[in-house]
Structure formats: C-alpha cells, structure tokens
Amino acid sequence: MRKLIRKSAGWIHASLMIAVIIPLFYSIGAESAGMLEQYLYVKCLLIVLPIATSDFAAEKCKNFLSYLLISIIIFATTGVLSWCISASLNTHMMSWAYMIIILCETLFVIIDRFVERVSKYKEIKLSQGENPDWHPYRTILREPTFIFLSYFVVIYMIALNLNSPSVCNAALFSAIVYTLTTLLYQYVCETENYLSLNKRTCNLPSRRIYGIGGGMLAIFLMLFMLILLPSLFTVNSRHYRDLRNWFGDMNTNFPDPEDENITEDPVEDPMAALIAEYGEPKPTPQWLVYLTYALQVIVFLLLALLLLKKIFTAFRDFREAIDENGDVVEELHDTKEAPLPMIKSASVNRRLSERERIRKVYRKTIRRYRKERPAIYESPSEIEARAGIANREDCMKLHDDYELARYGREL
C-alpha cells in the first residue's frame, strides 16, 4: 500500500507540472480570455496516461526492445486520444498545437523514464565496483517536494498579468492538489524512514508511529485548509492585467472562428423569454451576500474545531491505551464486590520455642546498643563489634547461645 501511494504521488506530481504548460502557452498567444477553452486544463490531464504506463513499462520491461515497443504503443495511443480531444477546440491552430505539445510531452516522459532505468542499472554496477565514475540521474518526474510549489506560483503570476482567469484557476487548483499530494508522500516516506531507524534504537511499534504521524498530518491539512480559505473566497476578486498591451508590435490574433466556416444552429435562450415576461431580476442585497460569506466561514470553523477535537481525542486515547514500550494499558475500575472474610491471626501470647526466644533476646540487645540496622552480609561478631558489646561477658554468653540457635541443628 505504501509503495502504491508513493507511485501515485509521483504520477500526480508529474501530471500537474506538465498539464499546465499548454494553457499557459495558449494564454500567451490568445487575444482575449474568452478565446481559451473552458475545460482545456482538464483535457491536458491526458498526460497522466503516458506518465503512468511508461513508468510501469520501465519497471517491468527486461530489455530495450520490449520497452521501445511499448513506448511506440503509448505514443500512438496518446496521439489518437489527443486527436479525438482536439476536435472539440475552438480553432484548427489550437487543435494542432494541442496535439503537437501533448506528443512532445509524451516523448519527453518516455525518454526520461528510459534514462532513469539506465541510471539504476549503472547504480547496480557501481555497487559492484565496476563503474566508479558514475553520477546518479535526478529526474523531476518522480518525487514531489514543496519547492515545486514555486513553479505553480510563477504560472499563477504570469497568467494574472496576461488576463487569463482560466489559467489562474488551473494553477491554483494544481497547487492545492500538489500540496495535498506532497503532504501524503512526505508522511509515508518520513514514517518509513523513522521505522527503519526505530528498528535499531527503541523498537517502538509501527502502529504507534503511524498513529502519531497520521495525527500530525491531519493537523497540517487543517492548517492548510485555513490558509486556503481566503483564496477560495477571493477567486472572483482578482485584479488582472495584460502586459501584452505594453508591446504594440506583438501579434496576438488567432484566426477568427467565423473564418473557418464553423456553423452553429441558433439556440433559443430560455432565460430570454423569462426576462421578457417578468423583467430583469433584482440584484442581490449586499447584506445577504455578507451574511452568506459569514455563514460559510462559521460552518468551516465549526468543521475545523470538530476535526481538532477528534484529533486531540485520538491522541489522548492512544496515549492512555498504549505505553512507551507498545504495551496495552488496561484501566482498572472500582468494583463493588463482597468483602473478604476476616481471617483470625495467630495468638500473640503463644509460647515461643527456646530457639525463637534466644533470637528475640539477641535482636533486642543489638537494637539497644546500635541504632542503625545491621546489613545482611554482617556476621554476628561484626554486628556485636559495631554495637560495642563484643568484649562483655554477658554478651559473649548471648553470642554463643545465638550462634547455636541460628546455625546449630539442635538446641
């Protein structure tokens, strides 16, 4: 499962970075924002097909000939699909540009996968000491990192200054999805890294590590959604500029769709009849708009608070249920049980044996002259010497009786 998450994150990373290129090129050459296809960015996500299949082919193919054959099939399939999709674009020039750029991107992905496969083969040779001058190949289509978010920020700023709302929305959507994908990818990779270190250190259970990492991931996701909220509310309030007006010599005219003999059947607008009958609708009151925004913010904050409470509850229950060594802690509750029957203790005034009487007298005598408790390794002679009664006649008689009572077989 973790391997599939890493692979899927890599595919999404490569697809989002490549798919936004075609809308950006179109926005540079388009005369107005309305010339761009509304769902052009979605059509550009076709690149995910060659990205995933070429990755699978580079991993499973055993020789260059099989990889070349599968790559030709991928290239041809992508060409056919791009030709079918491009038929719905506005102009023939946009259709041809879409097909050519998609095929160029597919060819780049295929070559990049092949170079990465060769690099892994050389890495095996290096581990065997056969190629010491080898340097690893770092592909940009494999691992998502947060530094690549600057790529979408640059695309967003360019589109903002080219009066292209659709490309701005595509860059914003890509940045959101890319951030979520990168968080999940880093969570899986860092948790696996910590698990490998944990095996050599404190040997904590994997369930505990994944639980802590999952809680931190949920906190970061909540913070990300809080930061994203203003951007979603201000989508329609962007201030666009067109830097191409600064350069009067730049030709940004695409062929007019009317010159290409595109005929469309006139369609009667159903709203026109309603407007003619009832008149123009009244504008929405400003206080209602503000009230709607306030309700949206309140609902989002309530959901965020519920998520936080759920996370903290999960951490608390997890901490109380499992200790640092991974052992399950069972909570003991007071139960109302029947009282235990009283057991009569032995009579205190029972008659002591001669051996017990001598040992009791010896202990009282030692406690009378020595305040500290004797150590367990001290012999009777050492105990009496430290109590200061070793040379007394009565104590010498008591010493002989105690040794006979303690070590003797019979008294």
Q: Can you put this structure into words, describing what you see?
A:
- By secondary structure, this protein is mainly alpha-helical.
- It has two domains: 2-129 and 140-252, no CATH class; 354-407, no CATH class.
- Helix content is 64%, strand content 0%.
- It has 14 helices and no strands.
- It has helices at residues 2-19, 21-29, 40-44, 48-60, 64-86, 92-127, 149-160, 165-198, 206-233, 270-278, 286-321, 354-369, 380-387, 393-407.
- α4 packs antiparallel against α5, α7 packs antiparallel against α8 (165-198) and α9 packs antiparallel against α11.
- It is elongated.
Let me know the number of strands. 0
Q: Number of domains in the coordinates?
A: 2
Poorly predicted spans:
none
How many whole angstroms does the radius of gyration measure? Answer: 41 Å
Largest beta-sheet characterization: none
Describe the global form. elongated
Number of helices, where a helix is a run of at least 4 consecutive DSSP H or I residues: 14
Give the overall pLDDT as a whole number: 76
* SSE string: HHHHHHHHHHHHHH
Distance between the termini: 78 Å
Binned strand content: under 5%
What structural class do you assign from the helix and strand content?
mainly alpha
Helix coverage percent of residues? 55-70%
Summarize, please:
The protein has helices at residues 2-19, 21-29, 40-44, 48-60, 64-86, 92-127, 149-160, 165-198, 206-233, 270-278, 286-321, 354-369, 380-387, 393-407. It has 411 residues and is an all-alpha fold.
Element layout with pairings:
Layout: H1 2-19, H2 21-29, H3 40-44, H4 48-60, H5 64-86, H6 92-127, H7 149-160, H8 165-198, H9 206-233, H10 270-278, H11 286-321, H12 354-369, H13 380-387, H14 393-407
Helix pairs in contact: 1-8, 4-5, 4-6, 5-6, 7-8, 8-9, 9-11, 12-14
